[in-house]
Amino acid sequence: MTALVGPNLGVNYGWALGEDGWKPGMDLNLKLLDAMLQLAVKDKDLGTPPGSPAEGDRYIIPAGATGAWAGQTNKVAVRIEGTWEFYSPTEGWFAWVQDENLFYTFDGAAWVTSINSAQPYDVHITFNGVPDSSLVLARVPVPRTTVFPAGLTGSYAKSEVAATASTTFAILKNGASIGSIVWGAGATVATFTFTTEQTFAAGDLLKVVAPAVIDVSLADIGITLVGTR
Questions:
Q1: Interior CA angle at 181 toward 179 and 184, to 5°?
Q2: For position 102, what pLDDT does the model report?
Q3: In the chain, where are the structural domains located?
Q4: Which end of the chain has fewer CB atoms < 10 Å from its terminal CB, N or C?
Q5: pTM value?
Q6: CA–CA gap between residue 122 and residue 47 (Å, rounded)
Q7: Contact of 147 with 199, CB cutoff 8 Å
Q8: Residue 11 reports pLDDT greater than 70
Q9: CATH topology of domain 120-228
């Protein structure tokens, strides 16, 4: 009899006891389970199939892919016996993306970053009184890969005493400027200039440095820089 097909993974089942001809369907089952259980893909943004894939390599195919992957958007491509086989995800599938070290979830239309894959990592900085000129308020060797978003969304910088004139503190990564914290004249709440997302690898050094010409009024500073890891 023709095998039945499971509604979730599409596994074949239901052959009659002793029935011949079940081997092709069972081979498909085993390949499917080998490919999809503990799903971890090498990449999800590679639009061209790699030139020398290893047996078992898996990829999530992005829109606009070419070659053997053309027209397979969002599917999981698996290298099996020298050819690419494709599996269509259903809503709720999880995949670990190895080149990003992040979990992604298929939401029924696209693969999106899993809410549980990125954990918060906050850098807290405090300084009592008026900082000296060019004082290093923070020197933080980042212990694990951490991403700070463009604009430093969710971050805060406040002072107990307002600045008299506009005052800018530098944010540096390994000694190079990547942004700034600006207190406007008369302000106790600062704004951030942080044009692009910044990824710190383990061991990269994050510094916050006071300006060479300090405002003599700005005092009692608290800063929280919000990132994810």
A1: 135
A2: 84
A3: 4-113, 120-228
A4: N
A5: 0.55
A6: 34
A7: yes
A8: no
A9: Jelly Rolls (2.60.120)
